[in-house]
What does this fold into?
Amino acid sequence: MTQTKQIAIVGAGVAGLTAAYELRQAGHEVTIYEAAPEVGGLAAGFKAPHWDWTLEKFYHHWFQGDKHILGLIERLGWSDQVVFPRPYTVVYFKDKFYPLDSYGEAFKFTLGNFGPVNLVRFGLVGVFLKLTPNWQALEKHTADAWMRRYVGDSVYDALWRPMLVGKFGEENLDVVNMAWMWARIKARTTRLGTFKGGFQAFLDKLADVIRSQGVEIRLRTPVTRISQDDAGRLTVTTSMGSETYDAVISTSSPALMERLMPDLPDSYAGRLRSLKSMGAVVLVISIRQQLTEYYWHNLPKDAGFPFLAMVEHTNFIDPEHYGGDHILYCGDYLEPDHEYFKLSKEELLERFLPALKRFNPDFDRTWVKDTWLWKTAYAQPVPPVNHSKNIPPIRTPVPGLYFASMSQVYPWDRGTNYAVEIGQKAATQVMEDFGA
Ligand SMILES: Cc1cc2nc3c(=O)[nH]c(=O)nc-3n(C[C@H](O)[C@H](O)[C@H](O)COP(=O)(O)OP(=O)(O)OC[C@H]3O[C@@H](n4cnc5c(N)ncnc54)[C@H](O)[C@@H]3O)c2cc1C
It folds into this structure.
């Protein structure tokens, strides 16, 4: 018979909630410590008083192939609450926006702007990347060098370079590997999904289920230290005191993991330290009327926009769920020392407003109803060449201590789908180690 173990989880994001669900299903006693006042982590949402649905702080959607999270939702019996509309993604090129998120549109754009030879190269590269499972061969090259070589300078400079520079900055062009690009192309679908009520509605429902099964979720309770006693038990310390567990899963950032457990062996701490990531700053603006007809606008850094992406969320989800407000996200991935991290929402709005006229010349600042500013220092892992050798395993060298973060879902790019997968893997490893 399985012996019940006491397990602590640091973080009530998607990974932490999923791990808790799986461990509780197997009969273990689980306590989740969460620093924030709500569950959800990076996928959490917020709600203005007159909205019916929550809105993600950072733009979020699912792809149709997101089998881990859609599978979990199916197990919970909530698939009827997932919707997959077909919003449009556009790319800015020579002062115009082009919808490029389907093969037909991408081929038309490439043929029209770069001719038949480039179209053939582009098509062959697209088919190869969709079909090949061999990301290991691709991670040996930078995305910059590989894509330039195979799609050619003109198509690369128009479509792919701006995406890489936007996400990771010029300084990381000779760092980011081709497996990252492979994973992006492989996972993408034209239909994009959400949960009725927003991601927070899903996360709250999941939290309610695991609470009803006996998991304790302690909100507003940041863990300050994880330590191990001579008997091998792990102690979790917060401002409320210390408690001892058989196992601890931390779902924090790598930097925080190192701070939480200063006694981590050097070999593992060094691997945590070598993981690089970008932060994100996103200004959410509610406006009185529709700005554009598209959902996602990819903007090249050299086109002079003060942000990387402008996402008109209400071209994905009906504005009726937001009391008739139209919602814009203006977001960028940035090094954590970028000045945007220090600016207030009023200061950022002043910088961003003039750019909104470039999407619609009729835009006027009287359209603006409200703004919200969200920032995170840990938003997007940066995967260098041969990255698979650097990833710290979920099982740390400290018996009973597990680490499961966005930085370990490689070769996949971060996403809630992979947070579910890594949460499940961490739970499985805990159970394997306890012979359960
Ligand atoms: C700008 C942006 C856009 C994104 N877009 C998408 C998208 O479109 N689709 C998608 O699926 N995914 C998207 N993601 C990624 C997705 O949000 C993450 O992959 C996922 O939420 C990670 O979940 P997690 O549980 O691993 O980590 P997190 O969500 O980071 O959860 C970690 C939790 O730990 C808590 N914590 C940290 N320190 C402590 C402490 N000391 N004590 C207690 N608790 C602590 C945090 O408060 C947090 O709740 C996006 C992310 C960003 C930043």
User: Anything to note?
Assistant: The chain is about 35% helix and 20% strand. Residues 102-178 form one domain. The pocket of flavin-adenine dinucleotide is lined by residues 10-16, 33-36, 41-43, 58-62, 222-223, 251-252, 256, 280, 282, 376, 379, 405-406, 414-417, 419 (CB under 6 Å). The mean pLDDT is 95.
